[in-house]
Amino acid sequence: MKLLASHGKHDLADERWNAYGQFTYIYGWKQAFSAAYTNADGSINSLLPTPEQSFTGSATLHLGAKPWKGGEVYFVPELISERPLSNLKGLGGAVQNFELQKGGAETPTLYVSRIYLRQTLELGGDEVKEDSGPSQVGTTYRSRRVNLTVGNFSILDFFDKNAFDIDPRQGLFSLAFLTYSAYDFASNARGYSWGGVSELFWDRWSARYGRITPPKQPNQLPTDFRLAKYYGDQIEVEHDHQLGHREGVLRVLGYRNREDIGRFSDAIRVFKANPLENAANCTTFNYGSTNANAPDLCWVRKPNTKTGIGIFGEQYITHGIGVFSRGMYSDGKTEVDAYTSTDRSASFGVLAKGARWSRPLDVGGVGYNLGWISNPHAQYLGLGGIDGFVGDGHIRARSEQVLDAFYSLNLHKAYWLAGDYQRIRNPGFNADRGPVDVISVKLHGEF
Question: What is the separation of C-alpha 401 from the centre of its chain, rounded to a whole number of angstroms?
Answer without folding.
Answer: 17
